Amino acid sequence: MVPAMSRSDLARMIDEARRVVVFTGAGISTESGIPDFRSPGGVWSRMKPIYFQEFVGDPAKRREAWTRAFTGAAGWVGAQPNAGHYAVAKLVASGKAVAVITQNVDNLHQDSGVPPERVIELHGNASYAKCLDCEERHELAELKDSFLKAGEIPYCRCCGGLVKTATISFGQAMPPEPMARAQEAALACDLFLVLGSSLVVYPAAGFPLLAKRNGAALAIVNREPTELDGYADLVLHEEIGAVMSEVAPA
Active-site residue 123, yes or no? Predict the structure, then answer.
């Protein structure tokens, strides 16, 4: 069966759905100027990732990681939401979308107006830091001056443990609570809408198929083909902001 391929088809699917789950990847944020990870010119073609075990075990790697965070070398934070983010926020505000599952760490869904409790962050958040021991939240602004001026690597103000940006690094265990929430949302929706994900990073990329196999319709909007296009009920290889601005509720 050839999947539907028009914006009007997507608008109809959204209109007919009762519980939409939106799943976003790097492609929605590249339209805000945030680089993706794996394409030529992406983050990992410019700098080697620092694995979790390296961060924990090597002070030099911790210093390098904090240097990247405070100089904006990776470019993950500091951008503004774009039309795609605002369209998703409209879907949530209308009551049509019940959750936004995201692979992104840029906080742009929250910045666009999606309530934080509706955003399920599979890979964490680069806009703040957490203690690896007690999970105390630390704002980056509180840590920046002492690092840049005195070279002090951050430690937890509560327990003295290692502090790290609240992202999930390579080699770090996926957070169980967001994974469980994402699974629950995927199983409860009747439309699973993928925006800007290449769908190659697992276990996150398993959620669209989980929803599809549980009876939900699957729609994919991504500039490039994905490995799951053949499973989808609708595929659009277009810019996300333009598509979602047209199909989101007014």
Answer: yes
CB atoms within 10 A of CB 247: 22
Q: Which of 109, 123, 138, 237 is catalytic?
A: 123
- CATH fold group of domain 36-75+124-167: SIR2/SIRT2 'Small Domain' (3.30.1600)
Task: List, for residues 114-166, the tens digit of each pLDDT value.
Answer: 999 999 999 999 999 999 999 999 999 999 998 988 889 999 999 999 999 99
Domain boundaries, the chain: 1-34+80-123+174-250, 36-75+124-167
Q: Which residues, in sequence order, are bridge partners of residue 139?
A: 128
pLDDT in tens, 75-88: 666 789 999 999 99
